[in-house]
Amino acid sequence: MTDDMKRSLEFNETTFTNERRAPEGFAPIANEIRRDIVRMLVRAGSGHSGGPLGSADIFTMLYFGGNMRYNPADMQAPRDRFVLSAGHMAPVMYAALANAGCYPKKEQETLRKYNTRLQGHPGRDMHLPGIETSSGSLGQGISIAVGMAMSDKLVDKNDHRVFSLTGDGELQEGSVWEAAMSASHFKLDNFCWLIDNNDCQIDGRVPDVMDVYPIDKKCESFGFDTIVVNGHDYADLQRGFDRFLENQRSGSGKPTAIICQTFMGHGVSFMNDKFEWHGKPPSKDQATAALEELAQHP
Ligand SMILES: [Mg+2]
User: Fold this and answer.
1) In this structure, are residues 265 and 274 in contact, taking their beta carbons and an 8 Å threshold?
2) Considering the chain, what is the average pLDDT of its residues?
3) Handedness of CA 134, 135, 141, 145 (dihedral sign)
4) Candidate from 9-13, 14-18, 81-85, 223-227 with smallest mean pLDDT
5) Ligand 1 centroid – CA 166 distance (Å)
6) Every domain of the chain and the residues it spans
7) Distance set, CA 7 to CA 2, 44, 229, 275 (Å)
8) pLDDT tens digits, 142-160
9) Half-sphere exposure of 157 (CA within 13 A, CB side)
10) Residue 31 Cα, ligand 1 centroid: separation in angstroms?
11) Phi, psi of 260 (to 5 degrees)
């Protein structure tokens, strides 16, 4: 391995601010998040590659586009909240939090190590700043997030926003739809449901395992203001977030669903749109190839 390749596996301490940007301003952030995901996973020797890489653009817009308000120096201060319902996609959330400056980026090298704050699925008991709740039992995270949104809007009566991301395979869990029904019944216009629609899950293409389509019609029938966007297009993603912000600002009484159409493993060509990459890490050679490819599009 050359020195250049060794260096490409190292984490750097560059962080990014959370603010409205022109669409082209997001690409370098998403690229760094993708590289950190590869660096983490090859060191861990286990974990999920496809979902985290495929959703890196969604997380970039969420954490670095001014859409979710938080203070990276104090993640307990009054804030908007995010719950990763698809908890196995933890590496992309850890990379976003590290690149926001919520914890030292070098700590990413501890992913899945004994006693690390970066468990295979998010664990609130590990006290990593930005982890609002433990998650990973599919269908549960969104239910907790809806409870948070109820608490914010109906009990504390504040203007905090709550976001939750589910996978599309996760839509096969009945409790997802109980949460959706509640969000609509309680008129939670402060709740934003992000769906990572990559059409893949661990065992194959989603319709081959258990058909969940049409997702947009289902969300609409559950009372959500629903918008379908290209999950790799920053302007289109912002269009989705803007719909949510307007729903909350105007007091529409409607929760928002943003269906983000993505490709699993996006950014690394040999993983792109391949469900086989749902739950495995790259080998060292594959990681080197992935980092070389990502380095060409910073
Ligand atoms: Mg999926």
Assistant:
1) yes
2) 97
3) positive
4) 9-13
5) 9
6) 3-295
7) 9, 17, 36, 30
8) 999 999 999 999 999 999 9
9) 0
10) 21
11) -100, 110
Find the 71 Cα to ligand 1 centroid distance in Å: 30
Cα 134 to ligand 1 centroid, rounded to whole Å:
20
CA distances from 288 to 48, 90, 177, 247, 276 (A): 17, 22, 41, 44, 19
Architecture of domain 3-295: 3-Layer(aba) Sandwich (3.40)
pLDDT band at 1 (very low <50, low <70, confident <90, very high): low
253 alpha carbon – ligand 1 mean position (Å):
29
Taking only the tens place, the pLDDT of each residue in 79-120 is: 999 999 999 999 999 999 999 999 999 999 999 999 999 999
Q: How far is the CA of 198 from the centre of ligand 1 (A)?
A: 5
Ligand 1 centroid to Cα of residue 256, in Å, is 20
Are 294 and 267 a contacting pair, CB within 8 Å?
A: yes
Nearest to 153 by CA among 126, 116, 184: 184
Tell how far the Cα of 122 is from the centroid of ligand 1, in angstroms. 18
